[in-house]
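Q: What does the assembled structure look like for these inputs?
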Amino acid sequence: MRVVIADDAVLLREGLVRLVEENGHAVVAAVGDGPGLVAAISEHRPDVSIVDVRMPPSHTDEGLRAAVQARGLVPGTPILVLSQYVEVSYADDLLADRAGAVGYLLKDRVSEVADFLDALARVAGGGTVLDPEVVGQLLVRRRRDDPLRNLTPREREVLALMAEGRSNTAIARRIFVTEGAVEKHVRNIFTKLDLSPDDEQHRRVLAVLAYLRS
Amino acid sequence: MPSVKGMTPSIARQLGRDTLYVLVGFPLGLIAVVLSMTLFWLGVGLSLIWIGVPLLVGVMLLVRGLATVERARMAPVIGRRMPHPYYKRPSGPGFWAQVRAPLTDGQSWLDLLHAMFRFIPSTIAFAVVLTWWVGAVSGLTFPLWDWSIPRGPDNVDLPELLGLGDGSITRTILYLAIGAFFALTLYPVVRGAALLEASFARGLLSGVNELREQVAEAEAARDVAQAQKAAAVSAEATALRRLERDIHDGPQQRLVRLAIDLGRAEQQFATDPEAARATVTEALAQTRETLDELRALSRGIAPPILVDRGLPAALTALAGRCTVPVQLDAPPIGRLNPAVESTAYFVVAEALTNVAKHSRASEAEVSVQPTGGGLLIVVSDDGVGGASTAKGHGLAGLDDRVRAAGGVLDIDSPAGRGTTLRAAVPL
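A:
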């Protein structure tokens, strides 16, 4: 894969470059700020970009805004955002165009190298990857009659893994059940939340996220 | 030609009030000056043979009564009620105590001064008001009574004196014009006269009192500000101490341990690569936990989500992190004062930490609502209760924090019946 990396902290940027290159990918550009990222994406059209949220000059959500801007110029360009903190309202900005191919992870997930590379591949392939912490925030109930209340703990767990962007196979492996069992849980969840079932992985995730964000 | 009917009712009513005030003020002023002057100087003269002293007390009580009447009378003129001022009370039942109180009271002497000299502004006001009313009424009604004036052969009318001729039409027009002038200027002139009399009364009868009230208000405000500042200092000191301890107990220890582990791994690579791999795996876990702790710590100092995205987003993040399921009720509100946002955030953060650590609750509810001029924060759970703001509890620091922001904190936590924490913070 051809990868663009944007992070203002040199130490971390070099670490990421090394990690990505050691695993057989090519880093086509490594930049340190938002405008640099936008320029690199329009120039190189990478398979995926890894972007830090906090960058100069504002040190707030510069990276996020640059990513959204880049996706305006190059629609659907896959972006994996890394952040020291993950908060659901940042995820909303990323998911807003409903085009998929976005990821939003806590920075320290990078240290689980295999998981991180898997997430990178899923985003590059058009999938959606959300940090479990973001999903936890999505599951906060807003109303007393919230249908989420009717889910069993197991169904909640499956819903959370779906929202993170995992496939049935991955969910089954994660909670040690058969794929058939996962499919049953998923059907129950969709019935309880009154969502129309969809077999296509990417659309299913978006449906779940749209439900949780509404 | 303006008439009472044509004016707005409030102007007509004010004109009536002012006129009545001035007209009644004149005889009252005369009575006051006669009584107070006579009795006071008589009392002063007679005090040489002691009889005068009770007479002086009597005068003081008399002028106090007149002052009370005046305060009530001027309320409709100046548009606000004059509070009854503070008069010194007798310190005991004895004769001298009864006598001393009114004679040593400052306001009593001001009342006396007012009674003695009020006739000056009230006479001026009376003369002006009477002139203007008579001028207006008589001028405007001139055609009605012109015929009744006897005009002898030597009679010379005003228009003739002014060189305007002596026709009856000229006369009527001139007098009507004069009447119109008085009528048009009647309201401001009467208002001014009434205010002249009322200001004199207000200055003497309630000036000292108003000053005293202002001082009391300023002192109360200063006390509140001092208490707020003390609470802020205390909250900050507590937070800094806790931060220092948290850094020392958490990340610092872990980094030391990490250095030791990596040192061991370096040696092990030469002798026992398998053990080295295990040590590195452990070190990796240590690193992740250090990161978690550091993140929690910086969140405790200045949560970035709060700074970047405001209160509702930050509350959602808090609720999502809590290990006990939280139901959140926080309507979207615009950005608030950073101090208010941060106080509200830390109230909820601290309360949820307590819920997770101590309450053994199965569910918690968080509600943050703007209510007239403030923010009402309620965090309740269905746990074991027994929380308090006593010294040493985490909630004591919270109490300081809320008071530093000028708010109040209330905790209701009966044993076995859950905890409800309420905080109100002014916007």
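The longest strand of chain B covers residues 364-371.
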